[in-house]
Amino acid sequence: MGFSNPLTKENDSKSSHFKITRFEMSERSSLMNLPATLTLALGLLVGCSRAPDPAATASGAKPPAKIKLGFLVKQPEEPWFQFEWKGADRAAAQSGFEVIKLGVPDGEKVIAAIDNLAALGAKGFVICTPDVRLGPAIMRKAHSAGLKVITVDDQFVGPDNRFMTDVPYLGMSASKIGESVGVALWTELQRRRWPIAETGVCVVTFAELDTARHRTDGAIAALAAAGFPANRIFKTPQKTTDVPGSFDAANILLTQHPEVKRWLICALNDTGVLGAVRATEGRGIPAEHVIGIGINGTDCIDELRKAKPTGFHGSMLVSAPGEGFRTTEMLYRWVKDGTPPPLDTRTTGIFITRENFEQVLKQEGILP
Ligand code: FCA
After folding, report:
1. What is the mean pLDDT of the chain?
2. How far apart are CA 169 and CA 210, in angstroms?
3. Pairing between β-strand 350-353 and β-strand 312-317 as defined by DSSP bridges
4. Residue with the nearest Cα to atom 6 of ligand 1?
5. Which atom of ligand 1 is nearest to the CA of 320?
6. How far is it, in rounded angstroms, from Cα 6 to Cα 367?
7. I want to staple 275 with a disulfide (CB 3.0 to 4.6 A). Which of 44, 50, 135, 247 is the partner?
């Protein structure tokens, strides 16, 4: 599958025919001490990167205060976003600014967070919004507080239902990553020589979020293009983007199709696939009759480490620390030097499985 993002280069690992977004060595190596899980409270201010005490210098003069920038995320409990924050911390340490990290699970929390940032004297923020339709309200609020905004992962949508392309955005090439999932599912199905007549595809969808829809549509398109029969590809919507949400969605589908003996599973991210894999287990479908492939690569580490393989086969890893690093760095340059960021930056992925994930996640600075 060809990706055309100029930010990427071919991954020469034999285990993958996908491309990988590369970031600076200094950025990666400094992320080596990440704890596997971080305990974070929803909706709370969880921490700032602190400078050494600036109070005294040899001359007695105070150094200028550090620029403060916010980093607001919709689901702070998801490892993806914790790794984005780690990347932001790294950029802050490297360039000498302060990053204020806030969980914003709903619109009210976003508005309160912007007020907090303004009160703290921040100059801008990076945000993965809990609802893309909050875009216009967030921009109005940010403008009145004099804050610059970069969106990450989930692009704002305006009242006309179009992306707000005037707000700088960095995120996945969603359709291409979804297509990669579809190709990988097909490849694994063929490797295992599964009879198509016994197989179905469970697509857990979250249509209200564009990046999610593009990912699952991409997977469906690639499977159909490879020759998988369209009438055996089943969509099932998740109400919430967590494990219980995708578990429920998949469970309904599995109940409707007891005739299907083997399942391919895809979703918007790792969490979506994990819930569906748990649902197959709940219905007694053996792990070797399930091939689930996620997206993110950050939220399936414990799953891939399990001694006994589950139906969760692999994931398209995208560099969450890299995205956190790059967006905060771009925002910092914008605030400090007036250099506006590119309006649209896309990242691509690399396929990880039980065989290669430790090595790839180490290379990417996600595992120590
Ligand atoms: C969305 C998803 C996250 C992650 C991110 C890149 O925000 O909810 O899990 O995939 O896109």
Report:
1. 88
2. 14
3. antiparallel
4. 153
5. 6
6. 26
7. 247
Measured by CA distance, the residue closest to atom 9 of ligand 1 is 269
Give the sign of the dihedral formed by CA 261, CA 178, CA 316, CA 267. negative
Domain of residue 340: give its range: 24-167+320-345
**Residue 361 in contact with ligand 1 by CB distance below 6 A:** no
CB within 8 A of 171, min separation 6: which ones?
151, 152, 153, 154, 155, 211, 323, 345, 346, 347
Rounded to an integer, what distance in angstroms lies between the CA atom of residue 21 and that of residue 317?
10
| Averaged pLDDT, 184-193 | 98
Residue in the block written with tokens 């210098």:
57
- CATH code of the domain covering residue 289: 3.40.50.2300
Length of the chain counted residue by residue: 368
Residues 123 and 183 in one domain: no
For residue 303, pLDDT over 50 is answered with yes
The H-assigned helical ranges of the chain are 25-29, 79-95, 107-120, 135-144, 174-191, 210-226, 243-256, 270-282, 301-305, 320-337, 357-363
Cβ–Cβ contacts within 10 Å for residue 73, how many?
28
Are residues 95 and 185 part of one domain? no
Atom of ligand 1 lying closest to residue 241 CA: 8
